[in-house]
Structure formats: C-alpha cells, structure tokens
Amino acid sequence: MHSSILKSKLLDYLNKQFPQYVTVDELSQACACSKEFTQVILNTIISDGMPLEFSKNTCRLSNPIMSKSAISANLHTKYFGQEILLLQSTPSTNDHIKENMNQFNHGSLLLAHEQTVGKGRLGRAWSSPAGKTVSMSLLLKPIDQTLDYALLTQLAAASMIKALSHYVAATIKWPNDIIVKKRKVSGILTEAEYAGNQLEGIILGIGINTNLDYENIPEDIRDKASSLKILSQMVDPNLIISRFLNYFEHDYQDWITTHRTEPFLEICRKHSALIGQDFWIMTDKEKRKASIDGLDKEGALVITYLDTLETVHLKSTHYSIRSETGYL
Ligand code: BTN
What we know:
The N and C termini lie far apart (51 Å). By secondary structure, the protein is α+β, with helices and mostly antiparallel strands. The protein has helices spanning 3-17, 24-30, 35-47, 68-73, 93-99, 152-164, 228-231, 237-258, 262-270; strands spanning 22-23, 52-55, 58-61, 84-90, 109-115, 134-140, 171-173, 177-180, 183-195, 198-208, 278-282, 287-295, 301-305, 311-314, 320-322. The chain contains nine helices and 15 strands. The strands form three sheets. A seven-stranded mixed β-sheet has the order 4-5-6-10-9-8-7, with helices on both faces. Strands 14-13-12-11-15 form a five-stranded antiparallel β-sheet. A three-stranded antiparallel β-sheet has the order 1-3-2. The radius of gyration is 21 Å and the shape is globular. The chain binds biotin. Residues 92-94, 115, 118-121, 124, 126, 135-137, 176-177, 187-189, 205-207 line the site of biotin (BTN).
C-alpha cells in the first residue's frame, strides 16, 4: 500500500477512535498493514507535527482532525464539498487552487492540515499549525458576472456564524473576522482569479482556529487571536465544515437566484462586533475615530467620523478597525 494512502487510513482510524488510545497492533490490523510499516508511518505523522500523543505502547490524537469521510457524512449539498481534496501541508490553500485552477471545479473544496505560508487580508500572515486548525478554500465558478462578488465574504461570514452557533455565540468584525469573546477565531480571504479580463473563479479561503492551545498562538497576536478550544471547548472540525457548507450553499443559491442581500446582511448586522460603538478607522495614511452606524444594503460599513461628523460608506476592505485599547 502506498504510504500516503496508509497515512490517511491511519489518521482516519485514530480520528474515529478519538479520544481512545490504540495500540500499534490494533492500528496495523485496522489498516491491514505490517506492524513495522505502521510504526514507520506513525513516525512520519509525528514529524508532520500532527497532534499525536503516546502513553506506554498506545497512542491517540489530542483532538479531532479533518477527515474527508467525516465531512461528507454530514453534507447535504449539491455542489459545495462534493469534491474534497485534503492535503497534509501546502503553502496556502488559496494559492494552491489558483496555481491548479483547471484541476478544480465549481464547489471543489481544498483542505490542508497545515499551511506553511497562510495569508490573511492586507498581506498579513495567517498561522495554521498542523492538525489544530482548519485551512479551507472553496472554488466558485460563477456564471452570472453581474453580481457583486465582494459580498461573498459577508455571505460566508453569516454562514460561519450559523455553523459555529452549535458551539458558541460568535460575532463579525467587518469585513472578514469571526470573533468570540473579543478574540479572532476565524478569518475569511476571498480572492478573484482572472484570465485576461475574464473571471475564472473566486476562491473563498477560510481559516478557523479550532483546537489550538495557548502556546500555539503566536506571541505577538495573543491579545487579538484565540481558538474555539481555548475560549469554549474542543471542537470537531468536520462538523463545522459540513455545517458551514450546508448553510453556505443554501444561502449562496438563494442570493444568486433572488439577488436579495438582506437575508445574510441582516445576520451580519445582528451579529456585528462593531455596530453601535466608536472605533479608530485606520489606513496607511490616517487614523480617525468614528461611530459605527450600520451596514448598508451593499454590505458597506456606514460610519460617521467624529471630527467632521461626515457619514461615509466604507466599501473597500483596505481599512483596519481598532478600539481604544487594541483589537476590539
Ligand atoms: C484574514 O483574517 O485576514 C483572512 C485569513 C484567511 C486564512 C485562510 S486559511 C485558508 C486560506 N488560505 C490562505 O492562505 N488564507 C486563507
């Protein structure tokens, strides 16, 4: 058996047994492979940095990890996630799709246990340690080129709020941060890919800090970022992914057929981490304080600058929004 197939079989078996410990004997029987080869593959899983823990002659995962079959088992979609590719590691799932565009179809989902150069908005880095985070990119190949696809970030944010509601009450820090207890637990990066001036596809990239421990959060962002495990409880990434895809496909189909933005924008308003408060609105050039008044029907953030009392609709996402004390 090819080692990458055996590796995913072993990981799936360990995942199904979670939180039980299993012996190498049991693993080798479950995967129909010699004990020696099973041990070799276990060693590569360790060197991949996957969360595997040992006790005497047994081992187990420290938390549930992503699995294609576990996602598919709870999926009720027609397109989204019907094709899933799960990689151990890639620089960035968004870039991986961009570079291999013709290998993916509308609704294909690319997942990675680890990203080595994960990207956030405004060129920021996004940290995705192996087996403790979700890095996913969904490819959309829209037929109707007249819709404002910048709205996809907010459509996805609304679906993510619903998917996470089974675990926690989350809010949205416009335009793309998902917040729990004033800390970012998930971020969305929507990128359009063009061939000439023809839209080839839109890549919806989502990172979720599912089961990170405190020491896995980079020191310089510990006041801003956290994980669902730290703030709430250990979570099953597969349930979050399938729930997200179920909600997102339904809401996406509704939007492209009716063109109604209110169903998802109303969720974004209701779950806003900003509306009704004052924040610093920052660009490269300036920093001004504003009251955050709402979200208009185009998904623009409506703010009033407190120095001039001028009301502005922020559509571009090239702003950083900060509170008096820091992130929120
Ligand atoms: C942000 O918070 O600014 C957006 C973070 C988006 C991270 C996800 S992880 C999957 C996909 N691949 C990337 O390189 N980035 C997105």
